Amino acid sequence: MAALISRVGKRLRRIIQRPGSVELTRYEALLPAVEKLEPELEKLSDEELTERAGKVRESTGFGDDQLVEVCALGREAARRALGERAFDVQVLGTMGLLTGHVVQMETGEGKTLAGALAAAGYALRGKRAHVVTVNDYLARRDAEWMGPVYALLGVSVGWVEPAHSREDRKEAYAKEVTYGAVAEIGFDVLRDRLVTREEDLVQPAPEVAIVDEADSVLVDEARVPLVMAGSIDHSDADEEVANIVRRLRLGLHYETDSDGRNAWLTTAGASVVEKSLGGIDLYGDSGSDRLAAVNVALHAHALLTRDVDYLVRDGKVQLINAARGRVAELQRWPDGLQAAVEAKEQVTATDHGEILDSITVQALLARYPEVAGMTGTAVAVAEQLREFYKLEVAVIPPNTPNVREDLADRIFASPSQKLRAIEEEVRTVHETGRPILVGTQDVAESEELAEKLAKVGLESIVLNARNDAEEAAIIAEAGKKGAVTVSTQMAGRGTDIRLGGTDGESREEVVELGGLHVIGTARYPSSRLDGQLRGRSGRQGDPGSAIFFASLNDELVLSNAPDIPEGIDSDEETGEITDPAALRQINHAQRVAEGVDLEIHRNTWRYTRLIERQRGDLLAHRDKVLRTTLAAEELEKAQPEKFAELKEKLDDEARLEQISREVLLYHLDQLWSDHLAYLTDVRESIHLRALARETPLDEFHRAAIPEFHKIIPEAATRAAKTLEEAEITDDGIDLADAGVRRANTTWTYLVHDNPFDSDFEQTVKKVRSMIRRK
Questions:
Q1: Does 111 appear as a known binding residue?
Q2: Is 384 assigned to a binding site?
Q3: Which of 36-45, 77-86, 438-447, 716-725 is the least confident region?
Q4: Which residue ranges does the record assign to the Helicase C-terminal domain (predicted)?
């Protein structure tokens, strides 16, 4: 009876406290069977263990018996290879992953091992698994760290990273388990879509994806499409306009909206710009070209902040991934904006080009027939995971109860008063010897805080986008006695903070002092990010505490809930606010921000869903061209005499087919690129349709569908024309001379979608400057 009551209680707690969570009773019932196999497996030699794992491959189906066998084998392999016996909660996590769920496991509970055992389990079922990480460091670290476990199970493992050549990538993807950052895997998909020889493909058909930091990858990253661009020439940044805009002043010459997403010239600003440009009319036909340059320069000047949105390092503008506080390697804004920021910062202009292809993270993961994931904060986005990925969350209980003390937020009237209180908090806690981790919002804030702490004799180690290459070593030592670490976004850092540091020398003393103390300098736009920062303290039952400081003038509040209720008083001396209404206002602002992000995700998917369907149809045709003789057949039919001449000169059926293939694929790819550019233009203007009470999304579809259907026949027509006009020599055709020129360098774009505002509101913002001018 007691056991029944316990089970009912667990179920009720999950229903009440954990919406979107999977019932774990089935998995918990299998744990005794996993444990029962341990003595038997311990007696096996390494070779016998590998052989037994191989027998799983011979199984038909994958029921509970196979689930138990895989988990028991994995536990024994980890014990031998790593000296770590997987906890029951890690086994539960492995089971959740092997049955296609997102498992929520708290920080420090061993997600890396659970993910590796699940990946091995999929491999033993004959399915190739990609373990998708948030950065390249974690991909290599986890593949190498878990390598001995995979070896004992007879499973091959590899990883991909930016430095890898095409052959390195082919070799890595040929393994049964491949680790890679989501961007790296995504860009390999995009690069494969541009190859002209079948043997140049690096990725096999996708089968299983296990996503680490699943909420970050599947929710946060889903708002940023991965875009591949090809180099054409140097960008033509308008330096004259940049110099003019640099002199404009907020409130006098231009204004911005409260959420910092739009900027526009005032009447006075437009007059200044027109006079500086020689008396042109920006809003007349003659000034339309300069108006576009002015708008993009104003965006760069007013809305993008150095050391917050980007760094200037080694003479280059480098974007910062706001979700992770890291430099977004090889990423840039769409060309006009990138060039405008480079002109603003007076650095050398980089090449610009055209978009060749793009893919959203959601579409990337949709390629895999089976998807699972793991993270410490999944419940908060359970509804999104279900809505966008049809994934359910399995909440895994901690191995040891969490005893971290989450202190009440301290709220202040102004950011400066808040900063003084943070300094005092750091000083007071540091005097006790407890290690401290301070989580900031951006690079500029982390460096400002570190400087202020240094002035009062508190030396700290700073972790931000400037030194993210050393992050693992910095984080690993953040638990040492007396350590003060200041870091930007901690999500996806992937390294545990062990009390006492990596050597554990002062562990017992730090435990006695109360463990790691975490300080948040402001609430994040998402409660998940708050939870991720708090979760750095109190790992595996360690003592610890966490506290957030906030201000009613923080960016979160000003952007999302600026209308502060009247009557909220603060302490005259410290500026601290104890009125509960202040906390309600901050919580409200955070909920609004979360709503913004959700709507951005939804709207991105609404518009890209049609594009993904079109891309799928085109890729099917492209794949047929790549793998068959279709191109040669079509060109011979369209240009029989020219084709016969080429055939006579070459006297080589296989080279002939390849030339035909390259010509047709070039035009297919070029037309797809043109189609993407067309759709971008449509998106830019589609909101004007709201003024006519038309539905913008319907109008987008109406414009996109007929244009897409022209691509395949037009590619065939252009390919035939290329063959008709090409000069045929004894060596065949000089493809470059015939106009078949592909980009020789590529890079990635960082694209921000801003569909939160209603269509009507976006329209108003776009025409507001013109209305004011009139």
A1: yes
A2: no
A3: 438-447
A4: 414-583
